[in-house]
Amino acid sequence: MKLRYTKIAAVIISAAPITSGIPAGAADPVFIQDGVFVTLQGTNAVAPLNGDARWAAGDQMTYVAVNSAGDLVMASSSAENAVYAYDAATGEQLARIEVGDTPKGIKFDREGRHAFAANEGSGTVSVIDPEKMEVIKTIDVGPTPHSTVASPDNKTLYVALQGGSTVAEIDLETLEKIGELPAGDAPHNLDISPDGKRLYVANVESEDLAVINLETREVLKRIPLGPPHYGVDVTPDGSLVLVTGITGDTVTVIDVEAMAQKTEIQIGQGPHGVRTSSDGRWAYVTVAGEDKVVVIDLSDLEIEDSISPGEGSFPFWVAVQGNM
Predict the structure, then answer these.
(1) φ, ψ at 256 (rounded to 5°)
(2) DSSP category for residue 67
(3) This prediction's pTM
(4) For the chain, give me the number of helices (H) and strands (E)?
(5) Where are the domains of the chain?
(6) Residue 27, Cβ neighbours under 10 Å: how many?
(7) Which among 297, 296, 245 is positioned nearest to 269, based on CA atoms?
(8) DSSP class of residue 267?
(9) Across the strands, what pairs with 46?
(10) What is the mean pLDDT of the chain?
């Protein structure tokens, strides 16, 4: 397969400013941080959360990721079968990289050596070299791969296979598929505990969160969830799992020790992307149906504020530096 990419000069769209509930003239609140990026599906753009810039992107923008160094952002266009790459500091569009059919999840490994696009339509994962800005390998993984996450030791990439009931495993040294883990019906999004011992997989058809013991390779429990489809994020201390459902209006908070629901936070119609800050203080949630990003204070599990990227922006996914 011949891969192509195009280098493009910086194109930054100036649109309606990102606004919050903080009074005009007040200092930026502490939760308005560098290194937070959102895909705006309604306006075909990617936006840093700390300013007014919109970076021109493609049609049907879905997922977004930032590398561990915080200097490179990639976002997937499922309609164009492409990944857009940007300089995180300037917004310069560095490349448009052709991948497989219908890319959704885009993630970097922990060391930033590769980025991975999960291609739903072709049943593959595209391995992108961030230095060359090109696909260096295509891995067959199984039906409808939707999202990925790398293990904390950066040895294994886990891939949710929404067209089945398992999670594929890829060896990050050999870049080969090495196995599958049981999950649930139509695994969608997933995250891993900070110690690398548990995988949390949200399943859209069984409407539950599978807690997988990675040592025994068994499902410990399936925790019921609300309406799908889901975003999943584990807090940095490993104590909580946050799960969104874009057809609902809440964030479900799972207590890891109890393996049970702790609370639900009413957040607005269409929550999907969810990522916590690297210090564990804040959670950022895209609320697509209300064109806002809600900030949750994790110290009390209360809404701190909401940020609007603009009317009709349809914020879909969020990436936070330090949260891989």
Answers:
(1) -65, -45
(2) -
(3) 0.93
(4) 0, 31
(5) 5-22+29-320
(6) 7
(7) 245
(8) -
(9) 39, 55
(10) 93
